[in-house]
């Protein structure tokens, strides 16, 4: 009897701990989702209203508008299913639904990183001096911006064409095979170790390229801001020039903050992803942490996006 009572007590404690963790996870995902989706809808609405009332958008506005749309799609495609799973809702997709979800998520996640990189690059070009090698891009990026964005969409659609192949809703007898990512609402399974590693490394290196480029551009902006602040202190200028200079500094700092946070959160995301390539079966905890950091980065995007919008308009 004592042994039975002890076993029951241990089992009850484990169930209580599991329930507590599940409630905490569900609450965290619900908060992130309910903030990120309305925030990105609001940002998109602001830029669309500006376009309707003024008839045009500035270059940085166009990039930010696409970025808010892409982040909105990431939240809808990945965060909502993850939140529903956290509340115990399962089997929401069949195989076709899983393939479409994984394919769409890969596209919009890649666009989120590449558009943020494009934004930081354009801002670096915008604040660069006339003698810089980046100066010729000041007129070329706005001229070919739509072409650049369309090319990015096409590249990610083509490069992820094989993503749906490995996505399934469930396995026979609920047995998860090796080299499988468990997303809780879907599974991404690879036939062998070579496919598992090669697909993961291509994904990781692509993100790393944009993160490194963003870091370089942000560093370049910070150097220019430092030199600019020293020059402004030593010279007297008109109020209009000072106001314009302050607006440029403000938007540059906002972009640097946005890019730094993106590098941080997507860096953590990719470190976890790289670690997951070393195990046969990726645990649910790793999947939850990756989604948490990816969603959190969108919230910081929204907080800095308002500063970028106001400052760019002031310029």
UniProtKB/TrEMBL annotation:
Main location: membrane
Record's keyword terms, sorted: Cell membrane, G-protein coupled receptor, Membrane, Pheromone response, Receptor, Transducer, Transmembrane, Transmembrane helix
TM stretches of this protein: 26-48, 100-123, 144-163, 208-226, 247-267
Keyword Zinc-finger: no
Subcellular location field: Cell membrane
Topology with respect to the bilayer: Multi-pass membrane protein
Example of a GO cellular component annotation carried by this entry: plasma membrane
UniProt GO MF annotations: pheromone receptor activity
Segments forming domain G-protein coupled receptors family 1 profile: 39-312
An annotated GO BP: response to pheromone
Similarity comment text for this entry: Belongs to the G-protein coupled receptor 1 family.
Name recorded for this polypeptide: Vomeronasal type-1 receptor
């Amino acid at each position: 009897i004592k042994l039975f009572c002890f076993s029951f007590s241990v089992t009850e404690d484990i169930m209580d701990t599991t329930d507590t963790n599940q409630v905490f996870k569900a609450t965290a995902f619900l908060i992130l989702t309910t903030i990120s989706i309305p925030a990105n809808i609001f940002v998109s609405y602001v830029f669309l209203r500006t376009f309707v009332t003024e008839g045009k958008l500035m270059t940085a506005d166009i990039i930010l508008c696409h970025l808010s749309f892409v982040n909105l799609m990431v939240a809808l495609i990945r965060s909502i299913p993850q939140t529903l799973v956290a509340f115990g809702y399962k089997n929401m997709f069949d195989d076709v639904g899983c393939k479409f979800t994984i394919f769409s998520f890969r596209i919009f996640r890649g666009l989120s990183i590449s558009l943020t990189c494009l934004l930081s690059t354009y801002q670096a070009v915008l604040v660069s001096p006339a003698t810089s090698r980046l100066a010729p891009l000041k007129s070329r990026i706005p001229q070919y911006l739509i072409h650049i964005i369309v090319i990015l969409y096409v590249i990610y659609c083509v490069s992820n064409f094989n993503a749906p192949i490995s996505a399934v809703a469930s396995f026979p007898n609920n047995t998860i095979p090796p080299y499988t990512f468990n997303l809780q609402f879907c599974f991404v399974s690879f036939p062998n170790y070579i496919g598992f590693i090669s697909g993961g490394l291509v994904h990781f290196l692509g993100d790393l390229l944009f993160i490194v480029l963003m870091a370089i551009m942000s560093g370049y902006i910070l150097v220019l801001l430092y030199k600019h602040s020293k020059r402004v202190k030593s010279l007297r200028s008109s109020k209009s020039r000072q106001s314009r200079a302050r607006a440029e500094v403000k938007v540059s700092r906002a972009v640097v903050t946005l890019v730094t946070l993106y590098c941080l959160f997507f860096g953590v995301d990719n470190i976890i992803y790289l670690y997951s390539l070393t195990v046969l079966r990726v645990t649910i905890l790793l999947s939850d942490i990756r989604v948490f950091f990816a969603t959190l980065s969108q919230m910081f995007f929204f907080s800095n996006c308002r500063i970028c919008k106001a400052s760019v308009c002031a310029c």
